[in-house]
Design a protein that fits this description.
354 residues; alpha/beta; Aspartate Aminotransferase, domain 2; 7-stranded mixed β-sheet; globular
């Protein structure tokens, strides 16, 4: 097993805390499908209250939550406005079209932010007299493909207001909401308030073994439960085991997000100081670091040989994500390994050994 303090591919690799293991072992179980599991009911109630919504639905993943939001808010053939670099567009296998039958209108963004005027134009513009029916506008914070940029309540609220002025509903992909709100010193309740629905993860910085919660009105969640069955899913008959860990995550692990953010900033500064590597340190707000190197694939292989695991994003870019297993000395260790790896990669490039 790899050293988790240097496994920086994703915060999804985190393991449950001891308190979570104990909660799962001692969980009182009921039939979740019939609403009889006390842990599931309690988790959904607490998640809804935290988000300031009427209701919630425990799911296996955030991507499933996004899919259900698309299915529930929009009708087949409708147009959905979303960021061209969003997780829904590029990391969920185009379920928006394949499963939902929706037309994704992609709006270009800069550092995760769509220009409000372009959002209006995407909704209003008619072609040859045809104006598509826009039923939903989706946003994402933190913004994964922009290096974890935290989008604040003011920006998110402004885009949500444009959607509402045009009669469209709104959904927030808030997978790492606690990292972004910690970075901006904002309240998750305030950030999610303008949206008709949102989904956030229980794993990652919160360290539950899995799961996400979709939140919204009672009618919306009722529709999402029906759509969950339509795609072959269910809450899980004995989902109380996962819910027990999720309750511990919500009650004890939210402060971990700020710790992960701090360590990511330290990591970014250390890596940026290595010759042959660069990080836009000013963009590192939360626990994601985008590292620019020549020949990322080669450097990643050299890093992994030395025990540092990263994710290749592009030909010249690696992603590193901090989490609860990262320690205060991990940034210095990672920088030392990177220095060795770049030197080795350069030598290999000269000799053709790799």
């Amino acid at each position: 097993m790899s050293d988790l303090a240097l496994d920086l591919r994703s915060d999804a690799i985190t393991l449950p805390t001891e308190e979570m293991w104990e909660a799962m072992r001692s969980a009182r179980l009921g039939w979740a499908h019939a609403g009889e599991d006390p842990n599931v009911s309690e988790l959904e109630a607490e998640a809804a209250a935290l988000a300031g919504k009427q209701s919630a639905l425990l799911l296996q993943s955030g991507s499933l939550g996004n899919l259900l939001a698309l299915m529930t808010h929009a009708r087949r053939g409708d147009q959905v406005i979303l960021d061209g670099a969003s997780h829904i567009a590029w990391s969920e296998e185009w379920g928006i079209a394949h499963v939902c039958g929706l037309f994704p209108r992609l709006v270009e963004s800069v550092d995760g932010r769509m220009n409000p005027d372009r959002v209006r134009d995407a909704i209003d513009r008619a072609w040859l007299g045809h104006l598509p029916q826009t039923s939903l506008v989706c946003l994402e914070s933190s913004h994964n493909f922009s290096g974890g940029v935290a989008l604040g309540a003011a920006y998110l609220g402004a885009i949500a207001a444009i959607a509402q002025q045009h009669g469209a509903r709104t959904h927030l992909d808030a997978a790492r909401i606690f990292n972004s709100t910690a970075a901006l010193n904002e309240d998750p309740h305030v950030v999610m308030a303008p949206f008709d629905s949102a989904v956030f993860n229980l794993n990652k910085s919160l360290s539950a073994p899995g799961g996400a919660v979709l939140v919204g009105s009672e009618d919306f969640i009722g529709g999402a439960r029906i759509n969950l069955r339509r795609v072959g899913g269910s809450p899980g008959h004995q989902a109380g085991i996962l819910a027990a860990a999720g309750l511990v995550a919500l009650r004890t692990m939210i402060p971990q997000a700020a710790v992960d953010n701090r360590r990511a900033r330290e990591l970014a500064s250390r890596l940026d100081a290595v010759d042959g590597a660069s990080v836009d340190v000013a963009l590192v707000q939360m626990n994601i670091v985008r590292l620019h190197v020549d020949d990322a694939q080669r450097v990643a292989a050299e890093l992994e040989r030395r025990g540092l695991r990263t994710m290749v994003l592009a030909m010249d870019e690696l992603r590193l994500v901090t989490h609860r297993h990262v320690t205060d000395d991990s940034p210095a260790r990672a920088a030392a390994i990177l220095e060795e790896a770049i030197a080795s990669s350069r030598n290999a490039g000269l000799t053709g050994d790799l």
